[in-house]
Amino acid sequence: MSAGEKAKAKAEQVAGKAVRKAAHAVHKDTLAAKGAALEARGRMRAAKERSKGSFKH
Questions:
Q1: Judging by beta carbons within 10 Å of its beta carbon (0-12, 13-18, 19+), is residue 35 exposed, middle or buried?
Q2: Residue ranges of the alpha helices (H) in the chain?
Q3: Do 53 and 33 contact (CB within 8 A), yes or no?
Q4: Which of 14, 5, 3 is nearest to 45 (CA)?
Q5: Over 70: is that where the pLDDT of 57 sits?
Q6: Spatial distance between the Cα atoms of 9 and 30, rounded to a whole number of angstroms
Q7: pLDDT higher for 2 or 56?
Q8: Would you tell me the crossing angle of helices 3-25 and 29-55 to the nearest 10 degrees?
Q9: Confidence (pTM)
Q10: What tens digit of pLDDT does each residue of 4-49 get?
Q11: Residue 2 contacts by C-beta under 8 Å, 6 or more apart in sequence?
């Protein structure tokens, strides 16, 4: 997993979690869903990068 992609995945996860928690605090369900989607996209990006390593060998 390249360092740039790993950082991008972690940044998406952190940003998504922050947006989701802030949106829940002010009862904005649409924004909370967008934050959850961003967080999930970060998790999927990390999983994709981890799986790439197993196919290289």
A1: buried
A2: 3-25, 29-55
A3: no
A4: 5
A5: no
A6: 22
A7: 2
A8: 160
A9: 0.82
A10: 888 999 999 999 999 999 999 999 999 999 999 999 999 999 998 8
A11: 49
Structure tokens at 4: 């740039």
CB-count burial class (<10 Å; 0-12, 13-18, 19+) for 42: buried
Residues 6+ apart with CB under 8 A from 8: 42, 45
With b for 16 or more beta-carbon neighbours within 10 A and e for fewer, the 4-29 pattern comes to eeeeebeebbeebeebbeebeeeeee
